[in-house]
Design brief:
The complex is a heterotrimer. By secondary structure, chain A is α/β, with parallel strands linked by helices. Chain A is built from 14 helices and five strands. Chain B is globular, with a radius of gyration of 22 Å. The chains are: A alpha/beta, B alpha/beta, C alpha/beta. Chains B and C meet through α5, α6, α8, β12 and α10 of B and α6, α7 and α9 of C.
Amino acid sequence: MNRFFVFVRKEFYHILRDRRTLLILFGIPLAQVLLFGFALTNEIKDARIAILDQDKSVYSKEIGNRLLSSGYFKLAGYLQSPKQLEAIFRKGQIKLALVFPPGFSDDWQHGKKTQIQILADASEQNTAIALNGYASAIIQDFAANATGGSRPMSIEIASRMVFNPNLKGAFVFVPGVMAMVLLLVSAMMTSITLAREKETGTMEVLFVSPLNQIQIILGKVIPYLVLSFINGCVILLLGVFVLGMPMAGNLILLLAETLLFIFLSLSIGIFISSITNSQVVAMFMSLMILLMPTIFLSGFIFPIESMPVFLQYFSNIIPAKYFINIVKGIMIKGIGLSYLIRETLILLGMAALFILLSLRNLKTRVS
Amino acid sequence: MSAIVIDNISKDYAGVSAIKNIAFTVEPGELFGLIGPDGAGKTTLFKILVTLMLPNQGQATILGQDLVKDYRALRKRIGYMPGKFSLYPDLSIEENLNFFASVFGTTLEKNYDLIKDIYQQIEPFKKRRAGQLSGGMKQKLALCCSLIHKPEALFLDEPTTGVDAVSRKEFWEMLAQLQQHGLTILVSTPYMDEADRCDRIALIQEGSIMGVDTPHGIASRFPLPLFAVKSADMYRLLQDLRAAPFAQSCFTFGEYLHLAGIDAQLEPVEISNYLQSHRHQQVDIKPISAGIEDSFMYLMSNKHD
Amino acid sequence: MSTVIANNLTKKFGPFTATDSITFQVERGEIFGFLGANGAGKTTAIRMLCGLLRPSSGEAQVAGYDVYRQADKIKERIGYMSQKFSLYEDLSIRENIKFYGGIYGLSRPVIKEKTQHIIEELQLENVVDKLVGSLPLGWKQRLAFSVALVHDPEVVFLDEPTGGVDPLTRRQFWEMIYAAAARGTTIFITTHYMDEAEYCNRVSIMVDGKIQALDTPTGLKKSFGVDSMDGVFQILARGTSTKG
């Protein structure tokens, strides 16, 4: 029995002396608990809304204030005309719009049927449903209390789900999964390729040859690019023809952005590969650095607006966030490049950054 | 003009010196051996010479070009075979060769006659994956890959390590043949017996060069008288000889022990008398001239004085 | 009784015969050289003798125990060291000795005594609490050998233990082997250095799974009419080098 304990003690030595293992054992669970406990929540907070107040009465203002002070909503701005609604939704600047028809308060005070319109951006249908629910509840609550209970005055709420009238879950699901799959597979595949060359020793021979670093990196990226692109197309086809996703926008643009995202994922993979000599470490890093943050912070599952501010800033460096917006924008909202130019440039910039960093790490000479 | 001129090259990693003040030359068409055990600094020096690493100090001229400034041009003119043979295990022999050929902008057919003698030995297996080859075959393939672009100088880092004795011998025969094509070859090895196969050698230990000369030249510098001794009980013989007043050192060398005397006066009869008094049977003593290994160990021990 | 007995010991992997009906006996305190090219079947044979691999057919006994039915007893009575096996680099010398002593069931006082003995013999007083990874290769090799002997095994299997080491250290290592053999430990060693074959009492040479020669070094040289073990090996092993 004693030899067994001796063995256990040795294992403790190994673990305690290996910083990497300690990080996994303690660092990651800690981070996860903190993230889940404090930061990640399904509740919606501070969702951006716009108010089109064509009534401009005490009551409409009161209702608006109640919504804004509830904590669920944050004012993005007041609209002047219904024509602005479509554009502002397309730009993705608001999650919800509240529309008061002209003469709303008059009708209400006189006991006539009144209606407030709520439009929700249903390209994230869970969020839309929730926000719609919050808003309706606040408005109905106002209606019930305003009369002091003496005379029930009801306000009819007309909800409209913009972009996704049938509230199909696939609309959020498919872009998110596509981003995750492409990122994970591309990055993981390339992350081990350079590390493998280093492990077998062939890397040195390549360095001493006339091949320069750019040729080596691009040579590694291109086969994976082709294969991942085929992968991405398959997912799109499944999404559209099997899961019923719409294809409202430009197909060429969508494919081009997909290619860009794949290229970015590959360059992240190459970068990971260039900073480690071990295939196993490379694979592990790509899982930790890519998978976890993407799942949690891309807005795919947990709404970004509900996170603490520092995490919201952090989500700005998650490539998947931009790609998901792009895909949803093109497929669901049907918007074009002019609306997506910011996201596209960010992805391009990230790709360039990682390629440059990889080149730096792959100097064919070490000093 | 020398093919390789190394001028006071030093390199350290994180403050620890790997090699220090390395200086020697290699003449064109020479088969030059860098002899030393693991950790002596052979691989570090090689990586610097094939332009993979920059030295901390010193310079070198290879084939008339500066090591640091002209590294791009040099890479086209030199061939390199790193330790562990660095082949792609999942590509076949043929595919490996074609890959390295095209990386250097040439083809197998163009330079076939240079590698013909070597390649013919593995050609029957050309479709087999490199990962499934024996050590000796991997060696031959790696050598072909390093020659495929017709380099003028060849750098082979421990090409015989971990390979069986027969393949090792064949490998050196191949190198001798390559010399006839005018190739300058710098080889590193931990095996002392391979030193005799080189035109000239440099002995390296703990990052410094202990001597540069022809194998014969190095061996002849051995300053003490040397004898091969054996008896019926080798273990006891070793202990007794070490304790003898006339012995500078005594080491095992296969069937015999090599005894180095403290001074030149030592005669076999003195040794034989001593051994008789220690009751050794079947004693056999003969004077011998030192080999590379004797010299290496002598230089090693004196380094620490 | 001989410490290692093999009788028509065979191992097949599917259609491939790695070790083909080898037969030999090794006596107590003998230094037995086990030579052959890579892939000749040496490693397979050693694995069977260590109780790590079940033979396909034939018999073998090590330290009196049968390799089929008493493999676990064999493991307690043998030591093993190879070029690839080293001690744990991230443990100190003392911790390594404690560990190996512990898994072989040595009591604490015995481990302490052994540790002291090893430290004195190898002159490691200054570095006993340093991590093994920080030691030069030669020291590691000799230390690994001492640790392989910590439980006083009857047989020690050494798999190319001196690879890449400088000639001085190699000899110091062999002197440790001689001392162990003189104390009665049987040494079973494989090596690529032909001069080391000369240090053995007897040598066997394996070619393609079979033992093609088994004799004292002097006997082998006489039989093959050459004056070195290298010559013997060249003659015997030549045939295999041109195969895949």
